[in-house]
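Regression report. Comparing outputs from two consecutive submissions.

Submission 1:
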Amino acid sequence: MSRDELVNDIRKLDFNDILLSPVGSTDIISRSEIDISDGNKMLPLFTAPMDTVVDSNNYPLFKELGINICLPRGEVGGSEVFHSYSLKDFKKIFIEDNPEGVSISKQYILIDTANGHIEDMIKTVKEAKKIWGDNMSLMVGNVANPDTYRILSEAGADYIRVGIGNGGGCLTTQQTGVGYPMASLIRETYYVSCLLDKPAKIVADGGFQKYSDIIKALALGADYVMLGSIFNKCLESCGQNYIWKKVRITKEGANKGYNLGLSVYKKFRGMSTKEVQKKWGNQILKTSEGVVRYRKVEYTISGWVQNFDSYLRSAMSYSNARDLNEFVNNAKIIKISNNAYERFNK
């Protein structure tokens, strides 16, 4: 599919609307030739900053497996771990209270807002980067407009979360009608990034259900994919554990139950739910655009990563791509019909 055909098509596409077609021929003999790292010896993945996914206690398990960490608000981690702040708290801590940008180490910060399009966000990014410069790696979002990605990149953002309303814990699009199908959003944002002198990293965030969704996002141009519900369903996530969705159990009990073949469930909730608003100490609770669910534990995180590694290498070999940059350039993207999707969606 040509650039103009995908960008100018009035119909916007999601992951189920496309496939990656193999190239005519490939000279890759072994998957071991392929480098799936982000350039920093990590996988092109982030944990979503959700309190039923990752916290101060379990994040080392994810990091050891090569997954980049973005902690939820209030959680503290080590070096090169992104810490989350509301826009209000970020401005107070890093601009008003520290106008000189004084720090003993580089700061990795997420300004955690649902609507990254507001002018105050753009202004804050400019102010923060003027003060901190390269001593702060700044992630912002979420956005669902390729032009907002451009604006925030030019303001100085280092990473931008792309996607609104698609996540398993989010009701924004369902309730407000605001959103943008992810396949088209990622691709169009990627084309914008190619025109910028210093483009922010594209972090595709929300709605990933299976390995192929993640792989397609990387082929479309995402630098990283941020995962919430997929990581929540691993045994090691920090979601509260239950047997049969009813009986609350300890982490040790969950491990034993899972190993015995029992149905172990994890609590999963969106970060705009009233539960989370209360946890953050909000006095006025806004209408929730998130949901609370219970998801069955399906795998260990190491087992999931092993599968992801194999599937991504396989997909890249079909595109004759030895690294992720080649994958974006070489991947042949085709649109498919619903009948074509149902044929292989077993």
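Submission 2:
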Amino acid sequence: MRLDLQSRENCVAAVNDAAVVYNLAADMGGMGFIEANKGLCMLSVLINTHLLMAAREFGVPRFFYSSSACVYAADKQVSEQLEAPLKESDAYPAMPEDGYGWEKLFSERMCRHFTEDFGIATRVARYHNVYGPWGTYDGGREKAPAAVCRKVIQAQLSGSNEIEIWGDGEQTRSFTYIDDCLEGTLRLMSSDVVEPLNVGSDQLVTINQLVSIVENVAGVTLTRRYKLDAPKGVRGRNSDNTLVRERLGWAPSIKLETGMRHTYNWIREQMTADTRRRVFA
């Protein structure tokens, strides 16, 4: 859409009044999606490119970019028993997740260079597996916490009492509740921290333990079937929160058990509402 001169001036005024831009957009999903759609994930570089160019043109002084733990070097994530959580310096030498991870790392560098060349104050958060209510829980783009909730609920509603788990269930992750993600984002954006920071929980669990947490919330025990040839991603990943504590005086603190209860309850509400709509349609 082309803007006339007056509309363009109004847009510039609105941007200058807002003063900041948050780039939270990306074409992405869970491991099944990003392993099968590397090209589509890479196209997200266009979002950040165009937003940074517009921010420069309109004089936006501060810009936020949502990066990912997928930027971290694969050779530091080969075991579920991690030698150490992932600290920010572990992104180099570069060996990120193919496709999606490379897009995120490239866009981080673009933010850095727009700061150096054009004076835009950029802030970069490396999110670690954000989850919570109002997120995608089916259709192929959902991440593990939502997928596990959906599968447990489906097992309950269908009476199958079985759940399919991708891999052997011993791969490890940390999962960050949405409220912690938002708090960390706002704190980082208002700080003077110019380097990328982890915004992620450091509560490490196996996928099997994640399933157990949801079973406990649901009050069920399911038979587990393991799909060993399914996409699994890296073997182990956790957030080192040393730097975020030093620089922001804060770190994510919401326990997985608490966040998963909220997430499960919301997804169950959506799924049972869908069932009722189909029955009465």
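Expected: both submissions complete independently.
Actual: both completed, but the second showed a warning that disappeared on reload.
Relevant detail on submission 2: Confidence is low (pLDDT under 50) at residues 1-16.
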